[in-house]
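Figure S7 source data.
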Amino acid sequence: MKVLVTGGAGYIGSHTCVALLEAGYDVACIDNLDNSSYEAIRRVEELTGKKIPFYEKNILDREALKAVFEAEKPDAVIHFAALKAVGESVAKPLEYYHTNVYGTITLLEVMREEGVKKLVYSSSATVYSSVKEMPVNEESFAYVTTNPYGWTKIMCEQIIRDTAKADPELSAALLRYFNPVGAHPSGRIGEDPAGIPNNLMPYIAQVASGKLQRLSVYGNDYPTRDGTGVRDYIHVCDLADGHVLALGRIAGGKGVYTYNLGSGKGTSVLEMVKAFEEASGRKIPYVIAPRRPGDIAEVFADASLAEKELGFKTKRDVFDMCRDLWNWQSHNPNGYEK
Ligand code: UD1
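Tokens for the predicted uridine-diphosphate-N-acetylglucosamine complex:
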């Protein structure tokens, strides 16, 4: 079975390519390398000993996308290719709606024209940002969010649901990721953020390597056990495995399945700092800073549906996430750029 991975050179995409190849799937990839590097694909090939036909094309380019489908004849698509920075989406809403929403529509149209009926979609726990009760399950969904990036995820989920309603042959899995962190244990692939990282763990990793001076902890007055924000961190390799399981689920079913992919466990910012210090042997200097606008106190998953229906259970803990992140960071201080 062949899977076309859009955005396969990115952080989650590249780890998922490894998991797919190891599970025996054939993989082809389309990525415009806007926020990713071909080197990631090269290293996936090196890790797995398998080739990935690669197309440096934009999914918004319908003719190019159609040509990829015609050349590769995929049986299923995993759709990662999108813009993903919350703050940037507030400043550039049209770019976000264009790339994320129109990109997904273009992909669905080409899938329909080419008769491809299986889709795994990369959604986010950001769809729960207005929910107060924790943990969040798939039904907690409220059709409200705080930023254009979040709206694109809500809209694309709905577009896929409606498309599947109109085409009973289509089956799709909407995967809501919590906070993916860590790297492949080989240290060969990992997250390579452009510029100063927005997210906690890549920031901590760059403090540890000396690229950044100290971490700002955004708020210690939240109603959580130590006052800092609590999130559900998931090792990127567990997340990648979740995609393989989801693909298995839709291969044998019709309709749309929605799953939280998280560990089900909340960890605070200071607990993550401590875990990283233990795993890396490096001290992480930090200061307490004001809350970051738009942040919420805590979010963590009820991950029981994915466990029940997919057999999905995270295998790697917070220590593994920090160890593998540090292994990647210390061997690739400048990411893929040697
Ligand atoms: C962010 C995105 C979310 C996306 C997710 C992907 C925002 C507002 N949300 O989630 O849509 O799906 O990444 O991983 O950007 N923190 C610090 N100092 C820092 C950075 C973060 O204290 O320098 C804290 C935050 O306040 C938060 C926690 O660390 O409590 C995690 O933050 P982050 O890694 O940015 O993830 P989220 O905000 O949960």
